[in-house]
Amino acid sequence: MDTRFSRIGLVGRYEDALVADSMSIFAAHLLDKGIEVLVDAAAGDTCLPAGVTRVAADDLSARADLIVAVGGDGTMLFAAQMAIGRSVPLLGINRGRLGFLADVSPAEMTTSFDAVLDGHYQEDVRALLSARLERPGMEALSCDALNDVVIQKYETGRMVELETWIGDAFVNTHGGDGLVIATSTGSTAYALSCGGPIIHPRLDALVLAPISPHTLSDRPIVVGRESAIEVRLAKRSPTRAQVTFDGSVLGDLDHGGRLSVGAARQSVTLLHPVGHDFFRILRSKLHWGRSARNPDDGA
């Protein structure tokens, strides 16, 4: 057995019955193998088996050798925030709807993890975004994101107008519902629904995808990951914007403030079963090649 993984942090939405069921089965399997299972002490009463170790959420990633997230990609993003700044990798068991990041099925979770314990897995290092929100007279706010940083209109039916800069070069004024700045990992998330391209995770690139742009010519663009991106609220914008990262709120972008986004120094490592294939996942999740006449062509 790979002694690297003797303490496993287990993360998931306990209130979801399907997630709780998978977590219970998986935890029992780990305990039978003599592996310590760490769970969030604040989770309350759950159906997890006796023998799990309850720890503070802040300590879970510090004590675990591996974090296993049970749920969808939202759970993986939550686990990724726990792992940032630590050398702990992530493995995802998909109990969500789409699952580009959490790619182990519940039916295969015990056999897949046994293979991991035997040293049979693929490491996948994912780059992160770093964002800094500066506002006049207020303390700057910062974050790292695995998927994306989103700037969107705040509490109004009117569009927001955002100015974007890359380095010292002015790019455009975007009128609409906002802007998504995504990593290659996040290109299959919100940015994709905005018409952005799918980018292979190994490609060092960022996507800037306007959200419901007022002008049809305002299209997504792809830039290098090392690009220094700055977003400001246009002077004529009738409304302020809210900044989120991986679905969590960072703060408000007001007139006179600025958001700086670029490559983070940190990264996150995902573990996949041997034979992991990014294009197979795309075919499966996006139903490529399938039709009513040929329902199995995209398998």
Give helix and strand order, one letter per element, not per position: EHEEHEHEHEEEEEEHEEEEEEH
Mean pLDDT: 92
The number of helices is: 6
CATH topology of the largest domain: Tumour Suppressor Smad4
CATH class of the largest domain: Mainly Beta
Low-confidence stretches: none
Strand order of the largest sheet: 7-6-17-14-9-10
Q: What is the count of distinct domains?
A: 2
End-to-end gap: 33 Å
| Strands, count | 17
Largest sheet: 6 strands, antiparallel
Helix-and-strand structural type:
alpha+beta
Classified in CATH, the superfamily of the largest domain is Probable inorganic polyphosphate/atp-NAD kinase, domain 2
Q: Estimate what percentage of residues fall within beta strands.
A: 35-45%
The Cα radius of gyration reads 21 Å
Give me the CATH architecture of the largest domain, please.
Sandwich
Shape: globular
Protein architecture, described:
- Helix content is 19%, strand content 37%.
- With 299 residues, it is an alpha+beta fold.
- It folds into two domains: 7-121 and 273-286, Probable inorganic polyphosphate/atp-NAD kinase, domain 1 (Rossmann fold, 3-Layer(aba) Sandwich), CATH 3.40.50; 128-265, Probable inorganic polyphosphate/atp-NAD kinase, domain 2 (Tumour Suppressor Smad4, Sandwich).
- A six-stranded antiparallel sheet has the order 7-6-17-14-9-10, covered by helices on one side.
- The chain starts with 6 loop residues before the first strand and ends in a 13-residue tail after the last helix.
